[in-house]
Amino acid sequence: MHLPNFRPASTGVLALTIHSLVLGQEAAQPQEGLEEVVVTAQRREENLQKAALAVSAVSGDTLATQSITQATDLTRLIPSIQIAPAAAFTQIYLRGVGTFGANAFAEQGVAFNLDGVYLSRPAAPAALFYDLERIEVLKGPQGTLYGRNASGGAVNLVTAKPRFGERSGFLTAEYGDYDAIKASGAINLPAGERSAFRFSGQYVDRDGYYSDGYDDEQSHALRGQYRFDSDRVDLSVMADFGRVDGKGPGGTIMPLLDGKNRLGPSDPAVIAAYRARTPTAPVPQITARNDGYQFNSYYGAMAQLDIDLGLTTLTLLPAWRKTDLDFVSYASSFLIDVTEKSKQSSLEARLASQTDKLKWVLGAYWFDESVVADQAFRQASNGTDIDSELDTKSFAVFGEATLSLSDRWRATGGVRYTDDNKTQDTEAHTLPFVGFVPPGPPNFTPIILDIPTFATSDVDFKETTWKLGLEFDAGPRSLMYASVATGFKSGILYSALGQNYSEPEKLTAFTLGSKNRFRDNTVQLNIEAFYWDYKDQQISHLGPVQVATTPGGPVFGPVFLTENAGAATISGVEAELLWQPVPQGLVSLNLQVLDTKYDELRYQAYSTTGAPPLLGCQISPTTLTGASAAARIFDVDCSGKSLVNAPKFALNAGYEHHFELGGGGRVTVGADTRIESARYLSIDFLGQGRQDSYMMSNARVTWEPADTNLALTAFVNNVENELVFSNSLQSPAKAGTVYNQLRPPRTWGVRATYRF
Questions:
Q1: Quick one: pLDDT at residue 42?
Q2: Half-sphere exposure of 394 (CA within 13 A, CB side)
Q3: Which of 464, 471, 500, 584 could connect to 410 by a Cys-Cys bridge, CB 3.0–4.6 Å?
Q4: What are phi and psi of 260, to 5 degrees?
Q5: Minimal CA–CA distance to 347: which of 377, 318, 376?
Q6: CA-based end-to-end distance of the chain
Q7: Quick check: helix, strand or coil at residue 377?
Q8: Taking the complete model, does pTM exceed 0.85, yes or no?
Q9: 270 pLDDT exceeds 60?
Q10: What is the largest CA-CA distance in the chain?
């Protein structure tokens, strides 16, 4: 496994726990014993097995081996995480903590970072998955060193950095079924003894998995980096650009209509099945067409400056990002037409120092974001148009220190204060169907009301989060640690009169862990037990908000809002095992056992037809007035249910073996599998929105000819061709009509990699 050159106080954001699939590299060399890994877990260099953090990670080589080019593919690699597409957005869940939101107001509950820079937009994890050193997943709240919107944890992308004195690079080309063409490459160019450039890029073009061409993948991206290092100054600069095109994600109404053939949203069979469901014509209908598209662009620039001041190191990390979204997407009866332009600027400053007795970091963080969005959500019998100007300003100060109490005991304490200010200036139009133009039959011209809402907000969210930890060296290669940490996710705005924002959600995590090496450094066993107390949980769903005021009282219309509807407890155990039975082979196991429960989950559902919603929870009618005469609003109580996207059991297992050939070449054979128990995908808790237990496996074989820098690979992913749901949405217009998205089917391909 190639390891990056770390430096003190760098943007390497966490300790690298060797994940079960880190073994899947196309150039790994057999060796006696597991490697020692040096990482920057807590803003300082330390041995992997001495880092008292719960982390899983996947190397950049493994991402190439597994043909990972987008965030949603990560779910099959790490047991604790579930990632799903939602139009052009990405929804990340970690141990059941995440956000279902898919609009301009939404923010993740699991922070997403690129080289230490927080990316706020749910669409941000696009066109970034190439030329990476590794991807890391921190489990649990990151309330001190990483900060805002990390109540459930963080996903960190670490790019491959320029290397001094080295002219090198790689080129990878891949072809597979669905006419998949993927290419990526990088070149490293020295510019003197202490400076270097690195340029990299990626191109992806794949047909859609659905019958109508949806769920395709078209993207290209470029990244340029420069690094300079002197005795006291280390400077890195990076700029990147990405474009995502194509038709975008797809899905189908349930039940699946043609076995394992994926009938897309605009397939004639799907449209006919949808139109046959109540309410039928002449009630206005919207059905998916084949004109969905994505034209989304991503721009970024950042720098890191490390200055050795003698007793401390000063780190400055300025960054700027821009996201331009333009897409049309369909779910059942649901047209989503969005144009969104966002810009974010941030600056982090840190002072760090370490001695034999004390290691500490102090810092400050500033963040400024503006979003201008034009969003249309249409279901024919109901619709909403929302034009918003949103602004977020955040400031934080933080610190963390580790003190050696003795040769074997260490204590850690950290605290962070965050002050978020959010504003909105929104014009929304609620568009309910209320009947037909008289005299009625045979004239069925629908009447659509237009109820305007002008929503403004200017609200502050302030929170202090903290961490306490204790570490003990139980042996030369054994570490035990315990910690309690808190995190929060800022309040979320939405379009409404009166109350139009949620309060922050909070999570307190208790962790007990152990990291160990045994049997002459050939066995690694890391175990973590955890208990999470989740308060004021934010739930994103289509629900009633006040859209108008009348002499008879407030009028409520349906809006996709985020509200504090839940409290939950989450507990479990995760174990990671690496075993090298022979120098040429490596066994890996990563098991998570999870127990989750909504102690409280209460919200309101909006019915455009007046019929009670079809939910797997208790419902009762209210007396609230809807936007049309037929509409009704219901109270929903799902308390006692398990958290969504939180399977009770998830196991990743893999084995890889190297065979040396007589002529000097080598063949590497590898296979891995994921076994997962059942889980619900939405707070509707419907059977058709439930993914049953499944097993999904991947296999590959790589040939490296003698005396070459070439590797040739053949692979099959999802060998079983399992139908696995990634997301679920019930139609707002036709109760009981469930629209599901799926993970990729069985795919195969061949890949050539040349390194120089």
A1: 60
A2: 28
A3: 471
A4: -95, 5
A5: 318
A6: 17
A7: strand
A8: yes
A9: yes
A10: 89
